[in-house]
Amino acid sequence: MYTVSVRTTQNVIIHYPVASVGERLLAYLIDRILQLVYILATATLLIRLDIQQIWIWFLVLIIPVLLFRLLFEIFMNGQTPGKRLIKIQVVTLNGTRATLGGYILRWLFALVDFGVLGGAIAVIVVAAGGKGQRLGDIVAGTAVIKLAAAHEISAENVFVTAHENYVPVFSQAIQLHPHDIELMHRALEANARLNNPEPLERLAEKIKTQLGIHSDLKAASLVQTLIKDHSHLTAG
Q: What pLDDT, in 10s, does the model give residues 1-51?
């Protein structure tokens, strides 16, 4: 399975699998259904209001539908409503957030990918390419990755919380930023879901150096402890 490597600001690499053809098709169908609902609801409203000016119909009906995927991907960090429901996301091939130009290229080439042969071109290119890319992705240098679903990962291993009477182990954990905590969760996620302990181990070593911690705890236990420490220390 092809994966996209996401390099975090802590220089830790987390590998995400690319979305399958089926997942992308399902997200696309969800988006199309939402667009159809919008068209029907808006057209009904315009008819009831007896709006006959063509430019108003074009402005409130046609343009939002045409820009649907582009605007959602720009403002929802590479996701449309369908992608968010299916838990997939557009990123560059090196794992960073796609640029505005990348989103625009994907949107423009969607006319070819989905507008010719009923979307068969997109399906064929994604299935045959090996990297899960349609033509728009190839031109824009992007891919669509599969984000881990919460129900597939043990809450004990990933979504770490501290109980009310918890006693912090490492007071240095208060120095951690929310972004650091997010990276820890993602590293735990990669370990639990992809059976890839390397990001977790590398992150643990970097955090130990950053905070001046000396501990023999294994990477998973150390990271979980730091998350709970930070949660408890910043709760007040």
A: 677 766 555 555 567 788 888 899 999 999 999 999 999 999 999 999 999
Residue 22 burial class via C-beta count within 10 angstroms: exposed 0-12, middle 13-18, buried 19 and up: exposed
Strand, helix or coil for residue 130: coil
Task: Give burial (CB, 10 Å; 0-12/13-18/19+) of 236.
Answer: exposed
Q: What is the mean pLDDT of residues 92-113?
A: 88
- Kindly compute the dihedral angle of the four CA atoms of residues 7, 11, 14, 16, in this order, to the nearest 10 degrees: 0
Can you give the length of the chain in residues? 236
pLDDT number for residue 1: 61
DSSP SS3 for 144:
strand
Domain residue extents for the chain: 3-146, 152-233
Q: Which residues contact 200 (CB under 8 A, 6 or more apart)?
A: 187, 188, 190, 191, 219, 220, 223
pLDDT greater than 50 at residue 153: no
DSSP E strands: which ranges in 39-182? 88-92, 142-146
